[in-house]
Write a structure and sequence with these properties.
The protein has about 170 residues and is mainly alpha-helical. About 65% of the residues lie in helices and about 0% in strands.
């Protein structure tokens, strides 16, 4: 082969390629028809749940897999983008503090957003960790309530119970 390549004398014999899908749908096997039908159903489902703007992004895709991959990158980003987003959320979680003039309802709303986003990216925090983080984020004006709550077993204090206790305070 090396000599043929160097001399420019290539063999004219061709190797047989494995047969692909037949061009005529009547020649498809039952297995091939099943795959075609599943693909068509999946594409139809995806087309029905997206907006016109999203359709423009995927209209050139030939297979359901291509459509899915394009939508996944569009909405979740590449792995590097996901990791960066997770890192930013973890950073926001670690630095989380109650803002001046913020109510308990507002702090929990803001904290829930971070927790929900982290969970969606596969980085959930336990209820105990969430309770500890909220208690650590409160300013010194809440110190008496925090000390009283910390005297309990924080692993048994649920996040929603903490919210109710702090709102009642």
């Amino acid at each position: 082969m090396d000599n043929a390549f160097l001399t420019g004398k290539l063999s004219t014999t061709t190797t047989t390629q494995p047969p692909g899908d037949p061009e005529d749908i009547d020649e498809y096997t039952d297995e091939q028809m099943s795959v075609v039908q599943v693909n068509a159903k999946a594409r139809n489902l995806l087309y029905n749940v997206i907006s016109g703007e999203e359709y423009e992004k995927i209209s050139s895709c030939d297979t359901t897999k291509e459509i899915w991959d394009k939508l996944e990158v569009t909405y979740e980003g590449t792995n590097k983008v996901k990791e960066t987003h997770i890192n930013m959320l973890v950073h926001g979680y670690e630095l989380f503090q109650m803002k001046q003039g913020e109510s308990i309802k507002e702090i929990f709303t803001r904290f829930n957003k971070i927790i929900s986003d982290l969970k969606a990216f596969g980085k959930p925090y336990s209820s105990g960790d969430q309770v500890r983080k909220i208690l650590m984020s409160l300013p010194t004006t809440w110190e008496t309530k925090v000390v009283a709550l910390e005297s309990q077993d924080l692993n048994k204090l649920y996040y929603d119970d903490l919210r109710g206790d702090l709102i009642a305070f």
